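ok trying this again, last paste got cut off
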Amino acid sequence: MDSPEQQSPSGYRRDLSSRACGALLALAIAGCSVGFNYRAPQPDTPDLWHQQLTEGLGEGTANLHSWWYTFDDPVLTSLIERAAAGNLTLRVAAARVAEARARVGLARGELLPDVDAIGFAQRERVSEDFPAPPSGRTDNFYGTGFDASWEIDVWGRIRRSVESASAGYDASLEDYRDVLVILFADVASTYIDIRSLQERLHLATENVRTQRETVSLTTDRNEAGLVGKLDVRQAELNLASTESFIPSLRRVLAQSIDRLAVLLGDPPSAMYEEFGTKAPIPSSAPAVAVALPAELLRQRPDVRRAERELASQSARIGVATADLYPRFSLSGSFAFEGTSDIFNDGKQAWSFGPAFRWNLFDGGRVRARIKIEDARTDQALAFYEQAVLAAFQDLEDSLVAYNEERRRYDALARSVVAAAHSVDLVDTLYRAGLTDFQNVLDTQRSLFLQQDSLAESEGAVAKNLIRIYRALGGGWAYEPRGGSSLDEVREKVTGE
């Protein structure tokens, strides 16, 4: 190669430009990423749950993908699938996934050159007041070509941006899955509420029928002179008290049906016909394996989302730190320019070369932005640790509620049997004149209250089991019968 002294000035500049470009490319290949390399935190977790919490439940890896099948209720299964297809909150979460995916593409796009096509057509006339030629002449100018620029990511600013966006995309996926977990649990719990309220309404109606017969009995006995007017009034009081339960139960039942319809993405009044007939309260054997504490953190989408949000935020520290260093870039242009017949070698115009820009003074704004990102990372870490603690608390509370409600249900079942026997016995004694009417009132009232509490407790046992499934993160890997995958459901929701 000729020495610089032997080259023309333009040749020397081209050689210098080529060497500078090669150096920048080498820096880009071997460049470091400022900031720090993220590592997921490892929170302290207990080895086992308290033994009394898992009584009656297994320990191990839980199969939670479609936990609602354990209730063996086709209506519930259908409601879950309809909610997955029509719930509007889930649709919003799916749209956020699409947005986050686009942000990843936006961040990755900065790694590649930016190329613009250019073109112009211009007609120009120079004033006659200027003596320089060609004064007073009108000319046409044309040009077409392209401009290109490329930032060399020496300090990893763009790579950290991609890292942050990718972790944000992961967080949006976990948010979608968390919405699934909450949605399916809410649908199932609301369905249990509806069946429980229907059972309670049925029991109230049956007790009203029985107590009306008692009012008729006391009226007949009063007219026959066998009892006083007080028995009639007490019977009417007991009947009215039981009847007062019914409007409240109907109101709450209607509200629950409306809520379920909205969860499915339907108008509030769309499901009254579907629940026009009473059906049993779904029950399920506790066929759930309670995950070990460490496994719980891997199952819960909200915990995984908090960890991904922490990863995304930590990468932003590197993005901000890169502004402390110079930015290197390559830029160039190529065009054909002239007044006519521009597409020939003599009408070419081009430029190419490296450049850098380095902010030397900004009043401390860059370092302030780094401190802001540091503080936000500390916040994200605290949110993650709080999500871990909340997950443990959620499951422990659910286990306690389930076990204690089962004990309450067992006691109420015994009390209902005893109350029913007491009503039969007292009724026989009253008709024989061997006991006063107050005992009849007390036993009838007690039977209704115990039956109502038993129906409520039966629903509460099922709801607390659902709460355990939700606390374990059940349902996020939703795969309905028929082979549809979670991705296909999301595709249906987003329309992509």
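PB: full thing came through this time. The first strand starts at residue 58 and ends at 59.
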